[in-house]
Amino acid sequence: PQAKVSAHYLIRRDGQSFQLVDEADRAWHAGVSYWRGQTDMNSASIGIELDYDGHVGGAVAAFPEAQMEALMALLQDIVGRHGLDPRNILGHSDIAPGRKIDPGAAFDWPALHKAGFGLWCDDVTIEDVPSLEMGSGDKAVAPLQKALAAFGYQLAASGIYDEATATVVTAFQRHFRPAKVDGIADAQTQSLIYAYCRAALKS
Predict the structure, then answer these.
(1) 10 pairs with which residues across the strands?
(2) Which of 26, 106, 152, 174 fits a 20 to 30 Å CA distance from 120?
(3) What is the average pLDDT score of the chain?
(4) Residue 53: pLDDT band by 50, 70, 90 thresholds?
(5) Local structure of 10: helix, strand or coil
(6) pLDDT in tens, 58-92
(7) Is residue 92 domain-resident?
(8) Cβ neighbours of residue 165 under 8 Å, at least 6 residues apart?
(9) What is the phi/psi pair of residue 185, to 5°?
(10) Domain ends where: 40, 70, 86?
(11) In this structure, what is the dihedral angle of CA atoms 147, 173, 95, 142, given to the nearest 10 degrees?
């Protein structure tokens, strides 16, 4: 298509679902993307788009219950048929930090996890460590960058808290700490990054 944008599925706010592209075919929903060594997520994923305009005008609205229920039903079907690891349900903002923000900070990842999809950690112990932000060369920067890379993001362990690091941290926060998305690795963010890295690497 001329727009070069497509997805395998679209779910409307009222819960109606439409299959737009056969799962065996490549849809153009991810664009330039990366996750755990895969540089062409369009060819390695099934794309689901949600009809959502909650960010219009700066407002953040919750996703409709009917839409979330339809998404969970679709995920149940896809994961079951393909034998996928349900922890590997991601947002576009995870695989394309800085370029995509969907599904956004209002998306209910905890509810999705409760239904058996995605990764979510409760009761993470917050370590008392100093915040890391743009320009920092603290010795804690490189290990944090390595943890983010091990988790799945494309990030080099430069040892400097550069723009690429802030962009990835912002994407992480948007998914796993949506209450405050600022690109600064404060104590809570650092503790969450290490907790999620450990959880993701469990067999």
Answers:
(1) 18, 49
(2) 26
(3) 93
(4) confident
(5) strand
(6) 557 899 999 999 999 999 999 999 999 999 999 99
(7) no
(8) 141, 144, 145, 148, 155, 158
(9) -85, 80
(10) 86
(11) -30
- Identify the CATH number of the domain in which residue 158 sits: 1.10.101.10
* Residues 158, 188, 169, 94, Cα dihedral to 10°: 130
Number of domains in the chain: 2
Catalytic-residue membership of 133: no
Boundary residue ending a domain (42, 69, 86) = 86
Would 193 be classed as within a structural domain?
yes
Tokens, residue 47: 């794309």
Alpha-carbon distance values, 129 to 163, 175, 190 (Å): 21, 22, 8
Which residues lie across from 17 on neighbouring strands?
Answer: 11
Tens of pLDDT, residues 124-157:
999 999 999 999 999 999 999 999 999 999 999 9
Alpha carbons 21 and 188: distance in angstroms, whole number: 40
CA distance 9 to 20: 6
The answer to the question of residue 164 being in a domain is yes
Q: Catalytic pick from 23, 49, 127, 163?
A: 49
> Which structural domain range is residue 48 located in?
9-86
Tokens of 97: 């930090």
| The predicted structure's pLDDT at residue 54 | 67
Assess if residue 162 is contained within a domain: yes
